[in-house]
Amino acid sequence: MEDAILKVRLAAVRSEHRDLDMAIAALDGAASADQLQLARLKKRKLRLRDEIARIEDRLLPDIIA
Q1: Cβ-contact 55, 13 below 8 angstroms
Q2: For residues 44 and 20, is the Cβ–Cβ distance under 8 A?
Q3: What phi and psi, each to the nearest 5 degrees, are found at residue 42?
Q4: Cut 0.85: pTM above it
């Protein structure tokens, strides 16, 4: 059951990560981009990437061969 919850969370985090990527690209392309806002979005995106990695590690543990 925990795997199902993790998979749902992983999908949600990946979706938010993609949304942030698009928002960053749009803000970065704007002539009067707010640099503080851009930095905050990039930091959030990095935290999401780390969370994605943690969830994937829990779902697919390392197998010692």
Answers
A1: yes
A2: yes
A3: -65, -40
A4: no
Amino acid 38 reads L
Answer yes or no: are the C-beta atoms of 23 and 44 closer than 8 Å.
no
Q: How far apart are CA 28 and CA 42, in angstroms?
A: 11
Spatial distance between the Cα atoms of 50 and 16, rounded to a whole number of angstroms: 13
Side-chain-facing half-sphere of 61: CA atoms under 13 Å: 4
Residue-wise pLDDT for 42-55, tens only, equals 999 999 999 999 99
- For residue 47, give the H/E element and its range: helix 35-59
Structure tokens at 2: 């925990």
Structure tokens belonging to residue 20: 């942030």
